[in-house]
């Protein structure tokens, strides 16, 4: 058995809420009508792997569109909780002049939306789940269907390499498109990033 654990991170299929610039809630439905794109993505994935997903509807629907395997659902892999801003449009929040929303973008790592959580808090729970998975499934291929923020948190963990504090602000700069693939390997105590945002919309053109 190798000590390399291979993480195949997939962002879920697009949602109407995201297309409209709104912050989706946990029940937002995924658009899995792109059969050709899904087939291309499926061909890139390992045939034998443990399927894992965020328990949100859009993540589970994406898994069902890709495989008949029942995934392991891990609540810690859900998207950042945007609290009172959930289901609202970013443009409307900005135009409203709400002080809390404007202030949030001054420090999107450590400030939390009203009734929600900060990106730093999301990173902490995501990193803990990844460490547990690495310990429990060493040497395996893990396919994880989750969210843009979750995948950015995984990249932040891979970039940390023991640095404190972790480079959370830098990780927010990664583009993670719907139905894109991000490859990260846990190699013993270290990490290797094999690719980010692979099979994105630009790749499909």
Automatic annotation (TrEMBL):
GO molecular function, one term: phosphatase activity
Secretion signal, residue range per the UniProt entry: none
Pfam family, one: His_Phos_1
InterPro entries linked: His_Pase_superF_clade-1 (IPR013078), His_PPase_superfam (IPR029033), PGM_Phosphatase (IPR050275)
One of the record's GO cellular component terms: cytoplasm
Protein name: Histidine phosphatase family protein
Source organism per UniProt: Elstera cyanobacteriorum
């Amino acid at each position: 058995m190798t000590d390399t654990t291979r993480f195949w991170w997939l962002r879920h299929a697009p949602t109407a809420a995201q297309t409209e610039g709104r912050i989706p809630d946990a029940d937002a439905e995924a658009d899995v009508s792109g059969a050709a794109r899904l087939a291309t993505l499926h061909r890139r994935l390992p045939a034998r792997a443990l399927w894992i997903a965020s328990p949100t509807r859009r993540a589970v629907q994406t898994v069902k569109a890709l495989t008949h395997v029942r995934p392991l659902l891990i609540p810690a892999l859900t998207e950042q909780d945007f609290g009172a801003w959930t289901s609202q449009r970013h443009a409307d929040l900005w135009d409203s002049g709400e002080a809390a929303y404007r202030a949030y973008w001054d420090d999107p790592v450590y400030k939390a939306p009203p009734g929600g959580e900060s990106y730093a808090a999301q990173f902490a729970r995501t990193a803990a789940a990844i460490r547990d998975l690495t310990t429990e499934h060493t040497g395996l291929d893990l396919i994880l269907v989750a969210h843009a923020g979750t995948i950015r948190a995984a990249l932040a963990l891979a970039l940390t390499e023991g640095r404190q504090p972790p480079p959370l602000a830098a990780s927010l700069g990664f583009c993670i498109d719907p139905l894109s693939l991000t490859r990260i390997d846990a190699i013993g105590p270290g990490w290797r990033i094999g690719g980010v945002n692979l099979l994105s919309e630009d790749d499909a053109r």
